[in-house]
Write a structure and sequence with these properties.
single chain, 50 residues, mainly alpha, 1 helix, 76% helix, 0% strand, rod-shaped
Length: 50
Amino acid sequence: MRDEMDGRIWVEHHHDFSEAIHRALAPVRAAFDSLHRIQFDAPWKKKSSC
């Protein structure tokens, strides 16, 4: 009986749970993306405007 109730609750709410995790971790991902751009920036590949 308990497994049936847990399974039904999971089916009804797993999308909301996944979205909440996604929203919570989005700033962390943005920070890592920014650090990645900074670390792997190749100034010698930039085109000069001269």
